[in-house]
């Protein structure tokens, strides 16, 4: 396991001496690859050939690039010099770090190595200048570090196992503190990449705080890295791959026998599974591919769906472009497991509104997504007592995801899907109705908010405050949806109040932001975006595919939006920055679009055109079914409902979101449990849901 330790050490240098001069040549810069005497540049191979050390000059390089079958010398010159030198013992003494004798000649090595060192230094200077220039031009988003953010505030992050849809979410296993791994050694002066063993001090999602072996209680060189990165390996990988293990320069003189130290320290310790990197790679393979066609909610009219084409896939998140968009800028972001997307023909199969495309036939290369790729909803029995039109319930407002509102079932579809409208703010033509499945965690029985001490938003214009369901049902002549029809399952999700994570801003679903869990009601999570006011919080299901572990953006290459700074928030309007969330029961209305801190840029793809807009009436073909698509069973999620648009950029021209704008579903997940008097913590299992009755 530890054989790789002897393959390279920091005492092996490229310094040389000659009979005319004993002055040593400066070693090559540590950030450069190995440069051989013939001017060729070598780096570590991807195979298992390993490294070698020239027995004549001490040069360290790739074994395959060395001269002769034995791979003992880096060049023909070194081989001949070694053979013609009668003082081999003196040469070996020099290679072991002892002063060489003056008779131990290295034929014309010093001038050549000196030139190579000068050239290498020049190249290093150019690289540093390029890095500095690139760093200065980078946006301030790059300056955010999860490690520094967590360390400086003693935060904790939600475990990877909480996110079943994320890479490694179902096979994270027992990765925890004190697990040992092999990582690149950055405290090293060698000109090649070498490795050393480190232990996990703290975990934060995919990120781990590491400490090199040998430092014991010294935290001066502790560093954060992503466990799923390509340079992270289980103990024993270096030996199997022919990579050198080199102790950090700071502690290299602490022990005389590092191999014995490692054997003692690592015996009985845990490390990553041998196939860990393979599992990471497999978990990041996604079945959705560009050019696949899907049905997705129309962001301008929530009550209907449209055909869209997958433009790109990043970490399982899809950038969908509506099929009629000629310039391919009319797009929509969602996860591949989102309840907002369905297979072609889904709308017709359940009786959902569908906007027929003006395109009469598929474009070349486009093909329908196989139905089995979509998330499945629970089967329900609609033959007995079931939801009916006009029944009242409580639902998350898709245009104001921080609120739960009084709502009404407007239409009952097939396969357990319901069309729901928010009382007091519905359009006359029903264009702002939104589709939920009966098992959706975004709908609740009457009385849910009261029992769980959540503020319920009454209908707009309703004046009899405080709002009481008993009076409202009597005044409207309505009945409440039966409690037993709602989903009451609560998984053991593992979230705790205060945990950090990365969350999609469902009001602007292309943005993923630094966020915190602030409340937990059974399976319902209150997500707060760090640096922003509470009015921008969102209710999200614990199994929502729009929540990710810390480090997900770094792992997948998605851009993370850091917490808003105070100066950024102060640039908002005076009324907005001074406004505090009122604890009244008045209708809050549609909130303004969120601003994004100055200098923070969203994903470098076209943004969602979700501003303003006048409500359009439905044309005849909007009620028609799609072209000749075959009828297939209902698909994906446990609801169907889209995220409203709220930009985090500072755009003074942005207007208040109107009812004609897109409503998007916040919560996707599955079951839900209602426990009387539950506090802001995880509640597992099911129990009787108590509704307060009044005479």
Automatic annotation (TrEMBL):
SUPFAM superfamilies: Tudor/PWWP/MBT (SSF63748). Pfam families: MBT (PF02820), zf-FCS_1 (PF21319). Residues 1-32, 563-657, 676-695 are annotated as: Disordered. GO terms for cellular component: nucleus. Its main location: nucleus. It comes from Cricetulus griseus (Chinese hamster). SMART domains: MBT (SM00561). MBT repeats lie at residues 144-248, 256-352, 354-459, 467-563. It comes from the Eukaryota. GO terms for biological process: chromatin organization; negative regulation of DNA-templated transcription. InterPro entries: Mbt, PcG_chromatin_remod_factors, Znf_FCS, Znf_FCS_sf. Residues 565-576 have a biased composition (Low complexity). Residues 45-80 form the FCS-type domain. PANTHER family: MBT DOMAIN-CONTAINING PROTEIN 1, POLYCOMB GROUP PROTEIN. This is MBT domain-containing protein 1 isoform X3.
């Amino acid at each position: 396991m530890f054989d790789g330790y002897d393959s390279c050490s920091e005492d092996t240098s490229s310094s040389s001496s000659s009979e005319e001069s004993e002055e040593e040549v400066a070693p090559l810069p540590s950030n450069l690859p190995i440069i051989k005497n013939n001017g060729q540049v070598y780096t570590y191979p991807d195979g298992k050939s390993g490294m070698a050390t020239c027995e004549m000059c001490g040069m360290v390089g790739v074994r395959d690039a060395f001269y002769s079958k034995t791979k003992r010398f880096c060049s023909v010159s070194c081989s001949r010099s070694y053979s013609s030198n009668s003082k081999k013992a003196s040469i070996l003494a020099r290679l072991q770090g002892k002063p060489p004798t003056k008779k131990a000649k290295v034929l014309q090595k010093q001038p050549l190595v000196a030139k190579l060192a000068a050239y290498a230094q020049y190249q290093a200077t150019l690289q540093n200048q390029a890095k500095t220039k690139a760093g200065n031009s980078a946006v301030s988003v790059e300056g955010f570090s999860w490690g520094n953010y967590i360390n400086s505030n003693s935060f904790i992050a939600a475990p990877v196992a909480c996110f079943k849809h994320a890479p490694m979410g179902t096979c994270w296993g027992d990765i925890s503190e004190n697990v040992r791994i092999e990582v690149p050694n950055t405290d090293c002066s060698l000109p090649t990449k070498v490795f050393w063993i480190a232990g996990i001090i703290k975990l934060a999602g995919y990120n781990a705080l590491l400490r090199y072996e040998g430092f014991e209680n010294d935290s001066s060189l502790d560093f954060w890295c992503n466990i799923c990165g390509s340079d992270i390996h289980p103990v024993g990988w270096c030996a199997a791959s022919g990579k050198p293990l080199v102790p950090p320069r700071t502690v290299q003189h602490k022990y005389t026998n590092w191999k014995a130290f490692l054997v003692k320290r690592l015996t009985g310790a845990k490390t990553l599974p041998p196939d860990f990197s393979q599992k990471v790679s497999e978990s990041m393979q996604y079945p959705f591919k560009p050019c696949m066609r899907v049905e997705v909610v129309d962001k301008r009219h929530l009550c209907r769906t449209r055909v869209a084409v997958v433009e790109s896939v990043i970490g399982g998140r899809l950038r969908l472009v509506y099929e009629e968009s000629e310039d391919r800028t009319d797009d929509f972001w969602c996860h591949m497991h989102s309840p907002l997307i369905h297979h072609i023909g889904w709308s017709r199969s359940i009786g959902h509104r569908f906007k027929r495309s003006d395109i009469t036939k598929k474009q070349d290369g486009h093909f329908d997504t196989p139905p089995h790729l979509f998330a499945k909803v629970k089967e329900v029995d609609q033959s007995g007592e079931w939801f009916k039109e006009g029944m009242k319930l409580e639902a998350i407002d898709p245009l104001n995801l921080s609120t739960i509102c009084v709502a009404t079932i407007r239409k009952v579809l097939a396969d357990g899907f319901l069309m729901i409208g928010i009382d007091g703010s519905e359009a006359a033509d029903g264009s702002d109705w939104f589709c939920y499945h009966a098992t959706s965690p975004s709908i609740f029985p009457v009385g849910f908010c009261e029992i769980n001490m959540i503020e319920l938003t009454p209908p707009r214009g309703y004046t009899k405050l405080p709002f009481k369901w008993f009076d409202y049902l009597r005044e409207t002549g309505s009945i409440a949806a039966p409690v037993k029809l709602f989903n009451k399952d609560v998984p053991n999700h593992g979230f705790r109040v205060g945990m950090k994570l990365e969350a999609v801003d469902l009001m602007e679903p292309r943005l993923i932001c630094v966020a915190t869990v602030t409340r937990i009601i059974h399976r319902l999570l209150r997500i707060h975006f760090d640096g922003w006011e509470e009015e921008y919080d969102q209710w999200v299901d614990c199994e929502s595919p729009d929540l990710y572990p810390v480090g997900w953006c770094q792992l997948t290459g998605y851009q993370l939006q850091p917490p808003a700074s105070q100066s950024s928030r102060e640039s908002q309007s005076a009324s907005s920055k001074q406004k505090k969330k009122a604890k009244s029961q008045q209708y809050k209305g549609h909130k303004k679009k969120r601003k994004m801190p100055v200098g923070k840029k969203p994903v470098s793809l076209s943004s969602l055109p979700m501003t303003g807009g006048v409500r359009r009436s439905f044309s005849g073909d909007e009620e028609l079914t799609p072209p000749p698509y075959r009828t297939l069973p209902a698909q994906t999620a446990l609801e169907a409902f889209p995220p409203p648009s709220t930009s985090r950029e500072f755009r003074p021209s942005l207007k208040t979101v109107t009812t004609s704008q897109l409503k998007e579903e916040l919560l996707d997940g599955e079951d839900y449990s209602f426990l009387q008097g539950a506090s802001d913590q995880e509640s597992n299992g099911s129990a009787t849901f108590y509704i307060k009755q009044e005479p």
